[in-house]
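Lab notebook, bench 4. Still working through the backlog of constructs that have no structural model yet. Next entry is a single chain of 213 residues. Request: give me the structure tokens for it.
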Amino acid sequence: MNKRSKLLNKKGFTLIELLAVIVILGVIMAIAIPAVSTYISKSKKDAWISSAKGFIQDVHNKALSGTYTLPTELNEVTVVSLNMVRVERGKFESAYGLPYVDKKSYVIITNHNTPENPEYNYYFAAQDERGNYIPLTLENELDSSKVLSNAKNTAPVSIQSLSGTPTGTSKNLFCETGNTDCSWDSGTPKSFIVGLKLPAGYTKWIATIYSKN
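Model written out:
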């Protein structure tokens, strides 16, 4: 058999075979894309939680060194805006690569013991410009499940009506009995700490705020 006869006897792919390959590739893509998307999403959430713990650690260190006033009474709270915290690589943004909403992103310190033997709790809250957010969460409860989206204008926490300074500004935070939504200064319910419950017998938080804005 000559060379020309061999070439004529070679068969290409049939239409059915090509369709089968396309279907198989489609199935693989349908499985792979969601899996990759889930992995990327979880990686971003984990990165944000790691960053949140870094913010808390920085505030913790500066509070111990006297940069920030630590609360002593049970109804005192220290609020440190993230704009006061040293940010790695100079980026003030969430794990999604978006800038933080300045006045909805901070660390809160409370004392849950006596003035003589203080024991401090550190909380974190943040929101970026697209509405990704972490609601006010106790440090040891921070995990990827706390990273949420679509906060829009209903961010869980806000200090936007405060005029904090790098040296700190004290404000009274008035709360109704049993209510965790509290207003700064009586009659001006423009800002809230949602998720912090006042100790029994107290009607207001005494807050010291640290913020560059």
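Notes after review: The chain has one domain: 38-210. Residues 186-192 have pLDDT under 50 and may be disordered. Flag for follow-up if needed.
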